[in-house]
Design brief:
By secondary structure, the chain is an alpha/beta fold. The chain has ten helices and five strands, in the order E-H-E-H-E-H-H-H-E-H-H-H-E-H-H. Helices cover 53% and strands 10% of the residues. Its EC number is 2.1.2.3, 3.5.4.10.
Amino acid sequence: MTIKRALLSVSDKTGIVELAKSLHAAGVEIVSTGGTMKAIKDAGIPVMYVSDVTGFPEIMDGRVKTLNPYIHGGILAVRDNKEHQKAMQEHKITGIDMVVVNLYPFKETIAKLNVSLDEAIENIDIGGPAMIRAAAKNFKYVTVVVNPKHYDAIAQMVSNNGEVDAKLRMQLAQEAFNHTAKYDECIQNYLSAQLSK
């Protein structure tokens, strides 16, 4: 699958500007959120704000920004399913072929001395895991990247032939599900510890 549109939304911004530069040079349209978008824009790389895709602003202190059919429809659409294609056309949904997301730093937040329950709760990512899981589920068509160590190899693949190898897409999906599973495990362990106080 040729990568035409990528959604980049990361807490850990390591290497994200370099990846965005490579994707842009390969003709990929970049969609982004908040701080990630600012970093990409500040580097002079064209980027579309997620709110321009959804037609809806980020609300509730950023708790709701990517939970939208224009995002999830774009990620989850089965590209060779005629009904899915029809729905995309009817609702003007553009496919998202790559999702580069890493999550709010929950583990790092709860490691801080005297962290409040409220602060811990605000560092539970919702939209990030939803996008990661959607992209990982649809790995046949979508490349999901949760680890910056893959950026160079992926940028090179996209630059060379416009797509990411099918086996690597499945490996990245497996890594993505492992990533969200560990994230949820960390959250449930934290809440369990709060209950036992």
